Amino acid sequence: MLDVLIRGGTIVDGLGGEPFAGDLGIKGGKIVEIGAEISSEAHKVIEADGAIITPGFVDIHTHFDGQVSWDDDMDPSFSHGVTSVVMGNCGVGFAPVPKGGEKDLIEVMEGVEDIPGTALYEGIPWGEWETFPEYLDHIASRKYSLDIGTQVPHGAIRNYVMGKRGRDNQAATTADIEEMSALVEEALRAGALGFSTSRTIGHRDIRGNEIPGTHAQRDEILSFADAIKRVGRGVFELIPAGCVGELEHMGGEQSTYAEEIDLMTEVSKRGECPVTFTLVQNGDQPSTWRDVLESVAKINKRGGRLSPQVACRPIGIISSLLTYHMFQRRETYLEFADLPFEERLAKMRDPAVRAAILADKDIPHEYSGSMVAAVHEILRASFDSLYEMSEPVEYEPTRDQNFTNRALRDGKSNAEFMYDFLTGLDGKRFAILLGSNFHDANHDAIRAMMTDPNTVVGLSDAGAHVNMIFDGVAPTYQLTHWAKGRVRGDKIPLGYLVYKQSYKNAQLYGLTDRGSLEIGKRADINVIDFEKLKLGGLEVHHDLPAGGSRILQSASGYLATFVNGVQTRENDKDTGARPGRLIRGALTK
């Protein structure tokens, strides 16, 4: 007898082919039957007529490194069909950590990933681990709504071995390199899925310092490829210099994208491993992404294993009075910034206060590398990339809808328009700055990157940038926008989207037991009312440790989600089941 029979659905198996009608049987946590009309009896039957049946989604770019210590539902991923995540990206994380040395790692994570330091201090049980294997043991002792894999981060390794020298990005000695490489090998053997590093000067701690490893020399970088080769498995994840632009205002990137491609090619060859790296369309070089894809295609034809990691939508920055906004560092505003929301809104609606704030100067923040210190300047400088997030949300707006043009039509300055937008209605409206991937004011570049055979789809940053972005909803967004909702250009076939979000990501990380609906595979499964599937509005929740806030966006249309054969969601609600566990090491090289 089956544990579960999912009957009468349209199967989208994750292998990239056309969807087909059929039933699916689950027993003992695995898929045991797939067929047109399964006759076996089952303890539970889910009628899936009119719904699609997909593999659980695999999100390979998350930052739940701290959240795994205090949370078990793992939203935003859990609510959007994700059944496996990979964290430890961008070279940042919390192991290894010297005894009493958590402050240095928290300041890096808060600066790079915009996770409140107060939440990280309070929510993480510091002292329960020092080494990376001990960190894995901590994760393994807990139960979650989905499976969790992690990578060993360069920043933490460098900090642990070199201390202040590592944080100051001094050159590593031969002894340093040997010790760091050995620690990476130890982490991989204990179950890390790979190694991650960042080489962009845009990644800084809250004090404005480039994070450890940014300027690591070639021999240091290659020593980590050597560690992967010694173990025989693992992914090398890298944020390349130049990926978001030349960053001249920060001193300029240390190398060109072409030079970074050369380095990654050598890493892949030396480590005999896949290398995945961030690729977006940036404003300084809006066509470079095409050159990168062409280079990667040639390299991979010669035996390379480069996987550019791309996003399914523009990289956006959210602005509202509930999160970040253009006036948050104005002198007058800071006098009442800590008031409850309704009182703060009432103050801002006072004409005298409005005039004072608009005429004010900004007060620098004590931590120059924190997001709160800079985001108001980014919003001000990119006003022609700001759009309203009205209901229903237009995810591919036209240029006439941007705030610069709206301000001109209203006869207001940019600052006046933004102020009145933020304080209008109930004061809870959201705007979004559409930056990388939207420099042509359409999604054509995104589609080309997503459909390239060498790319993987990731960059959701789920768990990070909690008051600035909400891209953890990416799996749902792909289905609602790219498979059925896009009106300003070509869509992407449903079967291909699911393949990119499940099977291909799982294969990259050697997770060959999941990612597709095949007999013998893990029963990580979604049953989705595709026609009714939609995203909800943005909401700000104060549910992080120490009362920290984060932006969440719900989804409706997930009839059921299974992790290892256990139902975790039913009709968009949490069942309370926690079958998710640590993914300890890849199954294949």
Task: Write up this protein.
There is one protein chain. The protein is of the alpha/beta class and 589 residues long. The strands form five sheets. Strands 1, 2, 3, 4, 5, 18, 21, 22 and 23 form a nine-stranded mixed beta sheet that branches. Strands 9-10-11-12-13-17 form a six-stranded parallel beta sheet. α7 (218-231) packs parallel to α8 (257-271), α8 runs parallel beside α9 and α14 (403-410) crosses α15 (414-423). The protein is globular and about 75 Å long. The mean pLDDT is 97.
Mean pLDDT: 97
Q: State the total count of DSSP E strands.
A: 23
Main sheet summary: 9 strands, mixed
Form type: globular
Q: What class would the helix/strand composition place it in? A: alpha/beta
**In percent, how much strand structure appears in the residues?**
15-25%
Q: Helix fraction?
A: 25-40%
Gyration radius from CA atoms, angstroms: 24 Å
- How many H/I helical runs? 19
**What are the segments in which pLDDT stays under 50 over at least 5 consecutive residues?**
none
Straight-line distance between termini = 35 Å
